[in-house]
Model the fold of this input.
Amino acid sequence: MAVNIHNLIAAINPDLYCDLELKEEVKKIAKEKGYLAAAEKAKPRKTTFIDLSQVAYVNNPYHMLGIKNPIEKHSLAYDNFSQALEPIYFWLVDYINKEYKNSEKLLDNFVTSPGSSQFSEMGGRATRMQEEAMKMMQTSGTIIKSILNIVYDLKEFKIRLSLYDDLKSNDKSRKNAAVLSLKQIWLDQVDAIKRGTTSIKGLAQQFDYVTLIDAFMVADSLDRVKDLDLNDRVKRILEQRLAEFFKWIEESERELRKRFEIEKLYLKNQVNSVRLYARWIKPYLKAAQALEQRASPTSALVNTFNTTLMELTLMGKRAYKMDDDIAAGALPPYYRNKFKKVFNTIALVELKYRSVPERLSQGGGYGFRGRVDIDFTSYALTDDEVKVMKKELEKDDLGDLMKMIEGTTDDSLAKIQVDLDEFMDDKKDEKKDKKSSDDVNPFTALFSIFKPEKKDKEEIPKDTQMEKIIRNQTILYARAGCRKLYNSYKDTIDMPSFY
Done:
Protein backbone atom coordinates (compact mmCIF):
# COMPACT_ATOMS: atom_id res chain seq x y z
CA MET A 1 0.00 0.00 0.00
CA ALA A 2 1.64 3.25 -1.12
CA VAL A 3 -0.62 5.76 0.64
CA ASN A 4 0.08 6.81 4.22
CA ILE A 5 -3.13 6.51 6.22
CA HIS A 6 -2.41 9.68 8.24
CA ASN A 7 -1.83 11.67 5.06
CA LEU A 8 -5.07 10.28 3.66
CA ILE A 9 -7.04 11.40 6.73
CA ALA A 10 -5.42 14.83 6.38
CA ALA A 11 -6.57 14.91 2.74
CA ILE A 12 -10.13 13.87 3.63
CA ASN A 13 -10.49 16.55 6.31
CA PRO A 14 -7.73 19.11 5.63
CA ASP A 15 -9.37 21.87 7.69
CA LEU A 16 -8.90 19.83 10.85
CA TYR A 17 -6.02 17.41 10.33
CA CYS A 18 -3.76 18.80 7.58
CA ASP A 19 -0.67 20.92 8.12
CA LEU A 20 -1.81 24.55 7.97
CA GLU A 21 0.73 25.53 5.31
CA LEU A 22 -0.44 22.78 2.93
CA LYS A 23 -4.16 22.89 3.69
CA GLU A 24 -5.38 25.00 0.77
CA GLU A 25 -3.23 23.21 -1.80
CA VAL A 26 -4.42 19.81 -0.52
CA LYS A 27 -8.06 20.91 -0.75
CA LYS A 28 -7.52 21.99 -4.36
CA ILE A 29 -5.85 18.69 -5.33
CA ALA A 30 -8.59 16.66 -3.60
CA LYS A 31 -11.26 18.52 -5.56
CA GLU A 32 -9.53 18.10 -8.91
CA LYS A 33 -7.83 14.69 -8.68
CA GLY A 34 -9.28 12.92 -5.65
CA TYR A 35 -8.19 12.06 -2.15
CA LEU A 36 -5.38 9.66 -3.07
CA ALA A 37 -3.63 12.33 -5.12
CA ALA A 38 -4.15 14.84 -2.33
CA ALA A 39 -2.71 12.39 0.21
CA GLU A 40 0.62 12.46 -1.65
CA LYS A 41 0.91 16.15 -0.81
CA ALA A 42 -0.82 16.23 2.58
CA LYS A 43 0.92 16.03 5.95
CA PRO A 44 -0.84 15.65 9.29
CA ARG A 45 -0.71 18.41 11.86
CA LYS A 46 1.84 18.11 14.63
CA THR A 47 0.57 16.65 17.88
CA THR A 48 0.46 18.74 21.04
CA PHE A 49 0.25 17.39 24.56
CA ILE A 50 -2.97 18.11 26.46
CA ASP A 51 -3.43 17.44 30.16
CA LEU A 52 -6.21 14.90 30.28
CA SER A 53 -5.85 14.06 33.94
CA GLN A 54 -9.60 14.66 34.28
CA VAL A 55 -12.35 13.21 32.07
CA ALA A 56 -12.82 14.95 28.76
CA TYR A 57 -16.23 16.51 29.38
CA VAL A 58 -14.91 18.76 32.19
CA ASN A 59 -13.19 20.90 29.54
CA ASN A 60 -15.38 23.70 28.29
CA PRO A 61 -16.40 22.58 24.76
CA TYR A 62 -16.71 26.18 23.58
CA HIS A 63 -12.97 26.70 24.12
CA MET A 64 -12.40 24.32 21.17
CA LEU A 65 -9.37 22.79 22.86
CA GLY A 66 -9.79 19.59 20.80
CA ILE A 67 -10.20 21.41 17.47
CA LYS A 68 -6.95 23.29 18.14
CA ASN A 69 -5.12 20.06 19.04
CA PRO A 70 -6.90 17.25 17.17
CA ILE A 71 -4.33 14.43 17.22
CA GLU A 72 -2.96 12.28 20.03
CA LYS A 73 0.07 10.15 19.17
CA HIS A 74 2.34 7.85 21.15
CA SER A 75 5.09 5.48 20.05
CA LEU A 76 7.04 2.70 21.67
CA ALA A 77 9.49 0.01 20.64
CA TYR A 78 9.52 -3.47 22.17
CA ASP A 79 12.56 -5.63 21.46
CA ASN A 80 12.68 -9.10 22.99
CA PHE A 81 13.98 -12.04 20.97
CA SER A 82 13.11 -14.44 23.78
CA GLN A 83 9.35 -13.93 23.37
CA ALA A 84 6.99 -14.43 20.45
CA LEU A 85 5.53 -11.37 18.76
CA GLU A 86 2.06 -12.78 18.10
CA PRO A 87 0.71 -12.11 21.65
CA ILE A 88 1.32 -8.38 21.17
CA TYR A 89 -1.03 -8.26 18.20
CA PHE A 90 -3.73 -10.36 19.81
CA TRP A 91 -3.60 -8.35 23.07
CA LEU A 92 -4.23 -5.19 21.07
CA VAL A 93 -7.07 -6.81 19.11
CA ASP A 94 -8.74 -8.01 22.32
CA TYR A 95 -8.33 -4.63 23.99
CA ILE A 96 -9.80 -2.72 21.04
CA ASN A 97 -12.73 -5.15 20.78
CA LYS A 98 -13.42 -4.66 24.47
CA GLU A 99 -13.05 -0.88 24.66
CA TYR A 100 -14.26 0.12 21.19
CA LYS A 101 -16.64 -2.81 20.57
CA ASN A 102 -15.16 -3.21 17.11
CA SER A 103 -11.72 -3.69 15.58
CA GLU A 104 -10.81 -3.64 11.89
CA LYS A 105 -7.55 -4.55 10.18
CA LEU A 106 -6.80 -1.87 7.59
CA LEU A 107 -3.33 -3.01 6.55
CA ASP A 108 -1.54 -6.36 6.52
CA ASN A 109 1.71 -6.39 4.51
CA PHE A 110 4.95 -8.33 4.74
CA VAL A 111 8.29 -8.75 2.98
CA THR A 112 10.81 -11.55 3.50
CA SER A 113 14.54 -11.58 2.77
CA PRO A 114 15.36 -13.68 -0.34
CA GLY A 115 17.75 -15.90 1.62
CA SER A 116 15.09 -17.14 4.05
CA SER A 117 13.12 -20.34 3.60
CA GLN A 118 9.90 -18.41 4.07
CA PHE A 119 10.60 -16.40 0.92
CA SER A 120 10.48 -19.41 -1.41
CA GLU A 121 7.55 -20.94 0.45
CA MET A 122 5.37 -17.83 0.35
CA GLY A 123 6.38 -17.17 -3.26
CA GLY A 124 5.41 -20.72 -4.22
CA ARG A 125 2.00 -20.36 -2.62
CA ALA A 126 1.38 -17.06 -4.38
CA THR A 127 2.42 -18.59 -7.72
CA ARG A 128 -0.02 -21.48 -7.31
CA MET A 129 -2.86 -19.05 -6.59
CA GLN A 130 -1.95 -16.94 -9.61
CA GLU A 131 -1.75 -19.97 -11.91
CA GLU A 132 -5.16 -21.25 -10.83
CA ALA A 133 -6.68 -17.80 -11.30
CA MET A 134 -5.15 -17.42 -14.78
CA LYS A 135 -6.42 -20.84 -15.88
CA MET A 136 -9.96 -19.92 -14.92
CA MET A 137 -9.67 -16.45 -16.45
CA GLN A 138 -8.57 -18.01 -19.75
CA THR A 139 -11.51 -20.42 -19.69
CA SER A 140 -13.92 -17.62 -18.83
CA GLY A 141 -12.45 -15.55 -21.67
CA THR A 142 -13.27 -18.37 -24.10
CA ILE A 143 -16.82 -18.50 -22.77
CA ILE A 144 -17.18 -14.73 -23.14
CA LYS A 145 -16.15 -15.00 -26.79
CA SER A 146 -18.80 -17.66 -27.32
CA ILE A 147 -21.37 -15.39 -25.65
CA LEU A 148 -20.53 -12.63 -28.11
CA ASN A 149 -20.94 -15.06 -31.01
CA ILE A 150 -24.26 -16.30 -29.65
CA VAL A 151 -25.53 -12.73 -29.25
CA TYR A 152 -24.53 -12.03 -32.85
CA ASP A 153 -26.37 -15.15 -34.06
CA LEU A 154 -29.45 -14.25 -32.04
CA LYS A 155 -29.51 -10.81 -33.62
CA GLU A 156 -29.39 -12.44 -37.06
CA PHE A 157 -32.21 -14.79 -36.07
CA LYS A 158 -34.24 -11.88 -34.78
CA ILE A 159 -33.89 -10.00 -38.07
CA ARG A 160 -34.91 -13.09 -40.03
CA LEU A 161 -37.86 -13.83 -37.75
CA SER A 162 -39.08 -10.26 -38.14
CA LEU A 163 -39.62 -11.08 -41.85
CA TYR A 164 -41.86 -14.00 -40.91
CA ASP A 165 -43.76 -11.72 -38.54
CA ASP A 166 -44.23 -9.13 -41.30
CA LEU A 167 -45.44 -11.92 -43.57
CA LYS A 168 -48.48 -12.24 -41.30
CA SER A 169 -49.07 -8.49 -41.14
CA ASN A 170 -52.27 -6.82 -42.36
CA ASP A 171 -50.16 -4.08 -43.90
CA LYS A 172 -49.79 -5.07 -47.58
CA SER A 173 -46.61 -3.08 -48.16
CA ARG A 174 -44.89 -4.74 -45.18
CA LYS A 175 -46.16 -8.15 -46.28
CA ASN A 176 -44.93 -7.69 -49.86
CA ALA A 177 -41.53 -6.46 -48.65
CA ALA A 178 -41.23 -9.53 -46.40
CA VAL A 179 -42.09 -11.89 -49.28
CA LEU A 180 -39.51 -10.28 -51.55
CA SER A 181 -36.84 -10.46 -48.86
CA LEU A 182 -37.55 -14.13 -48.16
CA LYS A 183 -37.50 -14.92 -51.86
CA GLN A 184 -34.10 -13.29 -52.17
CA ILE A 185 -32.81 -15.33 -49.20
CA TRP A 186 -34.20 -18.51 -50.71
CA LEU A 187 -32.59 -17.76 -54.09
CA ASP A 188 -29.17 -17.05 -52.54
CA GLN A 189 -28.99 -19.52 -49.67
CA VAL A 190 -31.17 -22.42 -50.67
CA ASP A 191 -31.78 -22.73 -54.41
CA ALA A 192 -28.35 -21.54 -55.58
CA ILE A 193 -26.45 -23.75 -53.13
CA LYS A 194 -28.67 -26.79 -53.60
CA ARG A 195 -28.93 -26.81 -57.41
CA GLY A 196 -25.97 -24.83 -58.67
CA THR A 197 -26.26 -24.37 -62.46
CA THR A 198 -29.89 -25.59 -62.48
CA SER A 199 -31.00 -23.02 -59.91
CA ILE A 200 -33.15 -20.09 -60.99
CA LYS A 201 -30.13 -17.79 -61.10
CA GLY A 202 -28.07 -20.45 -62.89
CA LEU A 203 -30.75 -20.95 -65.54
CA ALA A 204 -31.04 -17.21 -66.06
CA GLN A 205 -27.29 -16.72 -66.41
CA GLN A 206 -26.25 -19.79 -68.38
CA PHE A 207 -29.35 -20.87 -70.31
CA ASP A 208 -30.82 -17.48 -71.04
CA TYR A 209 -34.01 -17.86 -68.95
CA VAL A 210 -33.96 -14.09 -68.50
CA THR A 211 -37.60 -13.77 -67.40
CA LEU A 212 -37.44 -16.51 -64.76
CA ILE A 213 -36.06 -14.39 -61.89
CA ASP A 214 -38.53 -11.54 -62.48
CA ALA A 215 -41.42 -13.99 -62.73
CA PHE A 216 -40.39 -15.71 -59.49
CA MET A 217 -40.23 -12.38 -57.64
CA VAL A 218 -43.60 -11.22 -58.98
CA ALA A 219 -45.61 -14.40 -58.42
CA ASP A 220 -47.14 -14.42 -54.94
CA SER A 221 -49.07 -17.71 -55.38
CA LEU A 222 -49.20 -20.76 -57.62
CA ASP A 223 -52.50 -19.58 -59.10
CA ARG A 224 -50.89 -16.35 -60.18
CA VAL A 225 -48.41 -18.25 -62.40
CA LYS A 226 -51.16 -19.10 -64.91
CA ASP A 227 -51.87 -15.43 -65.54
CA LEU A 228 -48.27 -14.53 -66.28
CA ASP A 229 -47.20 -13.99 -69.92
CA LEU A 230 -44.62 -16.78 -70.03
CA ASN A 231 -43.98 -19.81 -72.18
CA ASP A 232 -44.97 -23.21 -70.82
CA ARG A 233 -41.41 -24.33 -70.03
CA VAL A 234 -40.79 -21.29 -67.82
CA LYS A 235 -44.18 -21.71 -66.14
CA ARG A 236 -43.45 -25.35 -65.26
CA ILE A 237 -40.09 -24.41 -63.74
CA LEU A 238 -41.69 -21.50 -61.88
CA GLU A 239 -44.53 -23.62 -60.46
CA GLN A 240 -42.08 -26.23 -59.18
CA ARG A 241 -39.81 -23.64 -57.55
CA LEU A 242 -42.67 -21.59 -56.07
CA ALA A 243 -44.16 -24.70 -54.46
CA GLU A 244 -40.77 -25.49 -52.98
CA PHE A 245 -40.37 -21.88 -51.77
CA PHE A 246 -43.72 -21.79 -49.95
CA LYS A 247 -42.94 -25.11 -48.31
CA TRP A 248 -39.55 -23.73 -47.30
CA ILE A 249 -41.21 -20.72 -45.65
CA GLU A 250 -43.26 -22.97 -43.34
CA GLU A 251 -40.43 -25.30 -42.46
CA SER A 252 -37.74 -22.64 -42.12
CA GLU A 253 -39.85 -20.49 -39.80
CA ARG A 254 -40.56 -23.43 -37.50
CA GLU A 255 -36.92 -24.52 -37.42
CA LEU A 256 -35.64 -20.99 -37.05
CA ARG A 257 -37.87 -20.27 -34.08
CA LYS A 258 -36.85 -23.57 -32.50
CA ARG A 259 -33.18 -22.79 -32.98
CA PHE A 260 -33.74 -19.26 -31.67
CA GLU A 261 -35.10 -20.66 -28.40
CA ILE A 262 -32.30 -23.23 -28.14
CA GLU A 263 -29.70 -20.50 -28.67
CA LYS A 264 -31.30 -18.40 -25.94
CA LEU A 265 -31.13 -21.33 -23.55
CA TYR A 266 -27.50 -21.88 -24.48
CA LEU A 267 -26.83 -18.17 -23.90
CA LYS A 268 -28.27 -18.48 -20.37
CA ASN A 269 -26.07 -21.49 -19.77
CA GLN A 270 -22.93 -19.63 -20.89
CA VAL A 271 -23.77 -16.52 -18.87
CA ASN A 272 -24.31 -18.62 -15.76
CA SER A 273 -20.98 -20.31 -16.42
CA VAL A 274 -19.20 -16.94 -16.48
CA ARG A 275 -20.91 -15.95 -13.24
CA LEU A 276 -19.79 -19.24 -11.70
CA TYR A 277 -16.20 -18.70 -12.85
CA ALA A 278 -16.36 -15.17 -11.42
CA ARG A 279 -17.14 -16.66 -8.01
CA TRP A 280 -14.37 -19.21 -8.32
CA ILE A 281 -11.73 -16.72 -9.48
CA LYS A 282 -12.23 -14.13 -6.74
CA PRO A 283 -10.85 -16.22 -3.83
CA TYR A 284 -7.73 -17.13 -5.83
CA LEU A 285 -7.08 -13.52 -6.85
CA LYS A 286 -7.58 -12.28 -3.31
CA ALA A 287 -5.31 -14.99 -1.92
CA ALA A 288 -2.62 -14.23 -4.52
CA GLN A 289 -2.82 -10.56 -3.66
CA ALA A 290 -2.61 -11.28 0.10
CA LEU A 291 0.54 -13.37 -0.48
CA GLU A 292 2.33 -10.58 -2.35
CA GLN A 293 5.31 -9.09 -0.50
CA ARG A 294 4.31 -5.43 -0.31
CA ALA A 295 5.77 -4.15 2.95
CA SER A 296 8.34 -1.35 2.74
CA PRO A 297 11.88 -2.84 2.77
CA THR A 298 14.39 -1.23 5.14
CA SER A 299 18.10 -1.63 5.86
CA ALA A 300 17.12 -4.38 8.32
CA LEU A 301 16.21 -6.62 5.36
CA VAL A 302 19.52 -8.24 4.43
CA ASN A 303 19.34 -10.68 1.53
CA THR A 304 21.03 -13.60 3.26
CA PHE A 305 19.51 -13.07 6.73
CA ASN A 306 16.48 -15.01 7.91
CA THR A 307 14.35 -11.90 8.34
CA THR A 308 10.74 -10.91 7.82
CA LEU A 309 9.28 -7.39 8.03
CA MET A 310 5.56 -7.00 8.67
CA GLU A 311 3.24 -3.99 8.69
CA LEU A 312 -0.14 -4.15 10.43
CA THR A 313 -2.68 -1.41 11.09
CA LEU A 314 -5.64 -1.87 13.42
CA MET A 315 -8.54 0.56 13.84
CA GLY A 316 -10.88 0.85 16.76
CA LYS A 317 -14.07 2.87 16.24
CA ARG A 318 -16.58 3.92 18.88
CA ALA A 319 -19.52 6.31 18.45
CA TYR A 320 -19.44 9.47 20.54
CA LYS A 321 -22.16 9.41 23.23
CA MET A 322 -23.58 12.90 23.55
CA ASP A 323 -25.85 11.92 26.44
CA ASP A 324 -22.83 11.57 28.75
CA ASP A 325 -21.82 15.19 28.18
CA ILE A 326 -25.41 16.40 28.48
CA ALA A 327 -25.80 14.54 31.78
CA ALA A 328 -22.52 16.07 33.02
CA GLY A 329 -23.67 19.57 32.07
CA ALA A 330 -20.99 20.12 29.44
CA LEU A 331 -23.61 20.39 26.65
CA PRO A 332 -27.15 21.81 26.76
CA PRO A 333 -30.06 19.31 26.46
CA TYR A 334 -31.34 20.84 23.20
CA TYR A 335 -28.27 19.40 21.41
CA ARG A 336 -29.85 15.98 21.69
CA ASN A 337 -31.10 14.59 18.32
CA LYS A 338 -30.02 17.75 16.51
CA PHE A 339 -27.29 16.20 14.36
CA LYS A 340 -27.43 13.90 11.34
CA LYS A 341 -23.70 13.24 11.40
CA VAL A 342 -22.44 10.39 13.55
CA PHE A 343 -19.08 11.25 15.15
CA ASN A 344 -16.69 8.48 16.18
CA THR A 345 -13.61 8.25 18.37
CA ILE A 346 -10.93 6.51 16.32
CA ALA A 347 -7.82 4.73 17.54
CA LEU A 348 -5.25 3.66 14.96
CA VAL A 349 -2.58 1.18 16.06
CA GLU A 350 0.29 0.65 13.60
CA LEU A 351 2.69 -2.22 14.19
CA LYS A 352 5.97 -2.66 12.32
CA TYR A 353 7.61 -5.99 13.02
CA ARG A 354 11.23 -6.96 12.44
CA SER A 355 11.33 -10.65 13.14
CA VAL A 356 13.11 -13.95 12.66
CA PRO A 357 10.67 -16.58 11.34
CA GLU A 358 10.99 -19.99 12.98
CA ARG A 359 9.28 -23.06 11.58
CA LEU A 360 7.08 -24.49 14.30
CA SER A 361 6.73 -27.95 12.78
CA GLN A 362 7.64 -29.88 9.64
CA GLY A 363 5.44 -28.53 6.87
CA GLY A 364 3.68 -26.26 9.34
CA GLY A 365 3.54 -22.51 9.89
CA TYR A 366 6.05 -20.09 11.35
CA GLY A 367 6.52 -18.38 14.68
CA PHE A 368 8.07 -14.92 14.95
CA ARG A 369 10.45 -13.36 17.46
CA GLY A 370 12.13 -9.98 17.34
CA ARG A 371 11.23 -6.30 17.58
CA VAL A 372 8.01 -4.37 17.11
CA ASP A 373 7.52 -0.60 16.80
CA ILE A 374 4.01 0.51 17.70
CA ASP A 375 2.34 3.87 17.02
CA PHE A 376 -0.94 4.80 18.74
CA THR A 377 -2.87 7.65 17.09
CA SER A 378 -6.32 9.13 17.74
CA TYR A 379 -8.77 10.88 15.42
CA ALA A 380 -12.38 12.00 15.48
CA LEU A 381 -14.11 11.05 12.22
CA THR A 382 -17.69 10.94 11.03
CA ASP A 383 -19.23 7.82 9.50
CA ASP A 384 -18.91 9.42 6.05
CA GLU A 385 -15.21 10.15 6.57
CA VAL A 386 -14.54 6.60 7.76
CA LYS A 387 -16.39 5.24 4.73
CA VAL A 388 -14.35 7.38 2.32
CA MET A 389 -11.10 6.44 4.08
CA LYS A 390 -11.79 2.71 3.70
CA LYS A 391 -12.84 3.15 0.09
CA GLU A 392 -9.70 5.09 -0.80
CA LEU A 393 -7.48 2.57 1.00
CA GLU A 394 -9.08 -0.24 -0.98
CA LYS A 395 -8.72 1.70 -4.21
CA ASP A 396 -5.04 2.32 -3.52
CA ASP A 397 -4.51 -1.30 -2.49
CA LEU A 398 -6.01 -2.65 -5.72
CA GLY A 399 -4.78 0.05 -8.10
CA ASP A 400 -2.11 -2.09 -9.78
CA LEU A 401 -4.51 -4.98 -10.32
CA MET A 402 -7.10 -2.64 -11.81
CA LYS A 403 -4.61 -1.56 -14.47
CA MET A 404 -4.18 -5.18 -15.55
CA ILE A 405 -7.82 -5.54 -16.57
CA GLU A 406 -8.33 -2.24 -18.35
CA GLY A 407 -9.36 -2.30 -21.99
CA THR A 408 -13.10 -2.87 -21.95
CA THR A 409 -15.09 0.31 -21.55
CA ASP A 410 -18.16 0.64 -19.38
CA ASP A 411 -20.22 1.76 -22.38
CA SER A 412 -19.49 -1.40 -24.38
CA LEU A 413 -20.26 -3.59 -21.39
CA ALA A 414 -23.54 -1.77 -20.90
CA LYS A 415 -24.48 -2.38 -24.53
CA ILE A 416 -23.67 -6.07 -24.21
CA GLN A 417 -25.78 -6.26 -21.07
CA VAL A 418 -28.73 -4.72 -22.95
CA ASP A 419 -28.50 -7.54 -25.49
CA LEU A 420 -28.26 -10.15 -22.75
CA ASP A 421 -31.30 -8.73 -20.97
CA GLU A 422 -33.22 -8.82 -24.23
CA PHE A 423 -32.37 -12.35 -25.32
CA MET A 424 -32.37 -14.00 -21.91
CA ASP A 425 -35.94 -12.75 -21.47
CA ASP A 426 -35.90 -12.82 -17.67
CA LYS A 427 -37.85 -9.64 -17.00
CA LYS A 428 -39.88 -11.08 -14.16
CA ASP A 429 -36.90 -12.74 -12.57
CA GLU A 430 -34.77 -9.63 -12.99
CA LYS A 431 -37.08 -7.59 -10.73
CA LYS A 432 -36.63 -10.16 -8.01
CA ASP A 433 -32.95 -10.67 -8.63
CA LYS A 434 -32.08 -6.97 -8.56
CA LYS A 435 -32.02 -7.32 -4.80
CA SER A 436 -29.62 -10.24 -5.09
CA SER A 437 -25.89 -9.79 -5.48
CA ASP A 438 -25.84 -12.64 -8.01
CA ASP A 439 -27.66 -10.60 -10.66
CA VAL A 440 -24.65 -8.90 -12.18
CA ASN A 441 -23.20 -8.27 -15.58
CA PRO A 442 -21.25 -11.51 -16.25
CA PHE A 443 -18.46 -9.56 -17.90
CA THR A 444 -17.94 -7.08 -15.04
CA ALA A 445 -18.47 -9.86 -12.47
CA LEU A 446 -14.99 -11.16 -13.24
CA PHE A 447 -13.46 -7.83 -12.31
CA SER A 448 -15.85 -6.50 -9.69
CA ILE A 449 -13.35 -7.03 -6.89
CA PHE A 450 -11.00 -4.58 -8.57
CA LYS A 451 -13.27 -1.91 -9.91
CA PRO A 452 -14.97 0.42 -7.44
CA GLU A 453 -18.55 1.42 -8.04
CA LYS A 454 -18.75 4.25 -10.53
CA LYS A 455 -20.20 7.13 -8.57
CA ASP A 456 -19.71 10.83 -8.47
CA LYS A 457 -16.94 11.86 -6.06
CA GLU A 458 -18.35 11.89 -2.57
CA GLU A 459 -18.43 15.37 -1.11
CA ILE A 460 -18.08 15.44 2.66
CA PRO A 461 -19.96 18.44 4.07
CA LYS A 462 -18.08 20.78 6.36
CA ASP A 463 -18.98 20.93 10.03
CA THR A 464 -21.42 23.60 11.10
CA GLN A 465 -20.61 25.68 14.18
CA MET A 466 -22.65 23.36 16.41
CA GLU A 467 -21.09 20.29 14.80
CA LYS A 468 -17.63 21.69 15.53
CA ILE A 469 -18.52 21.62 19.21
CA ILE A 470 -19.50 17.94 18.95
CA ARG A 471 -16.34 17.25 16.96
CA ASN A 472 -14.32 18.97 19.67
CA GLN A 473 -15.80 16.71 22.36
CA THR A 474 -15.23 13.63 20.20
CA ILE A 475 -11.57 14.60 19.74
CA LEU A 476 -11.08 14.91 23.49
CA TYR A 477 -12.63 11.50 24.11
CA ALA A 478 -10.55 10.02 21.27
CA ARG A 479 -7.36 11.44 22.76
CA ALA A 480 -8.24 10.10 26.20
CA GLY A 481 -9.03 6.66 24.75
CA CYS A 482 -5.77 6.58 22.79
CA ARG A 483 -3.74 7.52 25.87
CA LYS A 484 -5.53 4.88 27.93
CA LEU A 485 -4.74 2.24 25.29
CA TYR A 486 -1.09 3.29 25.25
CA ASN A 487 -0.77 3.21 29.03
CA SER A 488 -2.64 -0.08 29.36
CA TYR A 489 -0.31 -1.80 26.93
CA LYS A 490 2.77 -0.43 28.68
CA ASP A 491 1.43 -1.80 31.96
CA THR A 492 1.16 -5.30 30.48
CA ILE A 493 4.85 -5.33 29.54
CA ASP A 494 5.96 -3.69 32.80
CA MET A 495 6.96 -0.39 31.24
CA PRO A 496 6.44 2.89 33.15
CA SER A 497 3.34 4.85 32.11
CA PHE A 498 1.80 8.22 32.88
CA TYR A 499 -1.82 9.15 33.59
Q: What stands out?
A: Residues 232-290 form the longest helix (59 residues). Residues 402-412, 427-439, 449-456 have pLDDT under 50 and may be disordered.
